[in-house]
Here is the input.
Amino acid sequence: MAIASDAWSLWEVWGTGPERRSGRAAPSTDSQGFLAHGDGVQFDDAGYVGPPLRGLWGSATEDVWALPYEGDLQRWDGKAWTAYPGLDGARFMALGGTSPSDAWAVGLHGAALHWDGQAWTRSPCEAGTLVSAWAAGPDDVWASGEDGVLHFDGTSWR
Here is the structure.
């Protein structure tokens, strides 16, 4: 079943696991992002309104981040979406995390942001485009991109 027949790219799928059989998919068109929520049987519009999305990650069904290529990061709390400012002019490609107080967003020109449960802050990274992120904790983060694989140890990216 198609979740968005006019979408030209599907960038991310995220789910809570087989026991809940729920998930979210983030296809995008040229100018508008679309987010779908599935219950294991069908997908429905998740109510996201914003620019095209590149990343999707959550710690639970009531804690989901949607990462647009440009613009504010969006967080679902189980009831509504809330916008959080990213970096001015930054373009993002992926996000990952470990908990409601530990999430990472990465993108073009070494853009890297960390969510600590209160705010997104820049994590200086001297790298080219980063296209994926995975975290085991706030001091053990991995990102890959055009410069290879980088690791953040809590102090710096290497």
About this structure: The radius of gyration is 15 Å.
